[in-house]
Amino acid sequence: RITSRHRNYKGDYLDVPSRPHLLKILQKQGDKQVLFVDNVMKFTGSGKMKSRIVLITEFAIYIVDHEMDSLKRWISLAAVDKICLSELSDHFFATVDN
């Protein structure tokens, strides 16, 4: 998609300050500065897709279930070699672990 290739990334696509459950998760973990947050699609072990929120801070990646407003996974950035975000408007991303 032509509009996806030249997308300007702004960082906070979900307006974290207006979402108390995300602020609570960050506060509980001691994180403050959000570098990136958006809706993404997660593939389950059975091949199904589930909608999640990915939140990246200076120290960690948070995977949040937006239906339950709960933290599903916390990944230290020290354990991640790189993060790849799809250039298409499909909400896919991948982490490459050390």
From TrEMBL:
Under the cellular component aspect of Gene Ontology, which terms does the record hold? myosin complex
Q: Which Pfam families match?
A: Myosin_TH1
Give any GO molecular function from the UniProt entry. Answer: cytoskeletal motor activity
Positions of the TH1 domain: 1-98
Task: List the InterPro entries hit by this protein, alphabetically.
Answer: Myosin_TH1
Name of the featured protein: Myosin_TH1 domain-containing protein
